[in-house]
């Protein structure tokens, strides 16, 4: 007997519900039943039953006046947990806010996901008129920028084995493999890395790794500012403070001894 095709859903109702949620998430305005059923390929009656179930658990919102649907607030809790299973942002938020305000940086927390991507869990901004803004959920290759140097410092990939990973990166200004490796080695000595104009022109990012008890990077704390905004002494202060928070998170989240 042949195996079932992998693209055939085993639970059609679940697949239909997911399609409805994705469609609503892609819309900037409320949508009616007919438009939704047509977009996801369901009969209006089947679509209505699923929408009612989703609305009962607040995954969609139904406006009884307009008879339209929008994505509901129930999806927020799931999205937050998917981005941050360990609840690290709840622990780090107050310290990130303090760093952002004291140093006029954008302080953020990134999680190393299984697909070799860094995912932005959350961030805090300064009150400066001009500041670096990020988007929660955005992803970056794990070896890129200041965070990449942190991950490379604790990676088991060495020598020629690392070269294909590095060559796949896209920089504004490539630091060069030799310099990159030297900068990654500094992370273990001082606890943080810095990227000045390599990843993005005019932007400086300082990053520090959050380690588990086995010494694996699980998160990165970053402080991002505009290049030239701080002198060397100021950057050292920000880097040291970024590393301090990463040490606190390593201990609180994973019991790591840094």
Protein architecture, described:
The longest helix has 23 residues, at 232-254. A six-stranded antiparallel beta sheet has the order 6-5-4-9-8-7. A three-stranded antiparallel beta sheet has the order 1-3-2. By secondary structure, the protein is of the alpha+beta class. The radius of gyration is 22 Å and the shape is elongated. It folds into two domains: 12-72, Winged helix-like DNA-binding domain superfamily/Winged helix DNA-binding domain (Arc Repressor Mutant, subunit A, Orthogonal Bundle), CATH 1.10.10; 83-254, Beta-Lactamase (2-Layer Sandwich). It is built from nine helices and nine strands. The chain has helices spanning 12-25, 33-40, 44-56, 74-83, 88-103, 145-153, 163-167, 177-190, 232-254, and strands spanning 31-32, 60-63, 68-71, 106-112, 117-124, 139-141, 193-196, 203-211, 217-226.
Instruction: Compute the number of structural domains.
Output: 2
Q: Which outline best applies?
A: elongated
Reported by name, the CATH topology of the largest domain is Beta-Lactamase
Order of helices and strands: HEHHEEHHEEEHHHEEEH
* CATH homologous superfamily placement of the largest domain: GAF domain
| Average pLDDT for all residues | 92
Gross CATH architecture of the largest domain: 2-Layer Sandwich
Termini separation: 55 Å
How many helices in DSSP terms? 9
Strand content: 15-25%
For the largest beta sheet, what order do the strands appear in spatially?
A: 6-5-4-9-8-7
* Rg on CA atoms, Å: 22 Å
CATH class of the largest domain: Alpha Beta
């Amino acid at each position: 007997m042949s195996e079932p095709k992998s693209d055939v859903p085993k639970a059609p109702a679940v697949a239909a519900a997911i399609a409805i949620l994705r469609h609503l998430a892609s819309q900037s305005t409320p949508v009616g039943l007919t438009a939704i059923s047509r977009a996801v390929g369901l009969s209006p009656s089947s679509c209505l039953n699923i929408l009612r179930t989703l609305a009962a658990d607040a995954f969609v919102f139904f406006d009884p006046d307009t008879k339209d649907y929008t994505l509901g607030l129930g999806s927020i809790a799931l999205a937050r947990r998917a981005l941050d299973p360990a609840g690290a942002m709840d622990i780090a938020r107050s310290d990130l806010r303090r760093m952002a305000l004291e140093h006029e940086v954008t302080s953020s927390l990134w999680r190393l996901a299984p697909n070799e991507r860094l995912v932005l869990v959350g961030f805090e901004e300064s009150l400066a008129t001009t500041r670096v803004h990020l988007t929660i959920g955005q992803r970056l290759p794990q070896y890129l920028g200041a965070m990449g140097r942190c991950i490379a410092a604790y990676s088991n990939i060495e020598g020629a084995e690392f070269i294909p990973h590095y060559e796949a990166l896209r920089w504004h200004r490539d630091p060069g493999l030799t310099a990159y490796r030297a900068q990654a080695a500094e992370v273990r000595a001082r606890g943080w890395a810095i990227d000045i104009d390599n990843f993005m022109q005019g932007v400086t990012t300082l990053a520090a790794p959050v380690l588990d008890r086995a010494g694996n990077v699980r998160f990165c704390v970053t402080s991002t500012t505009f290049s030239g905004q701080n002198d060397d002494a100021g950057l050292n202060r920000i880097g040291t403070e970024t590393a301090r928070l990463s040490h606190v998170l390593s201990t609180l989240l994973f019991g790591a001894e840094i």
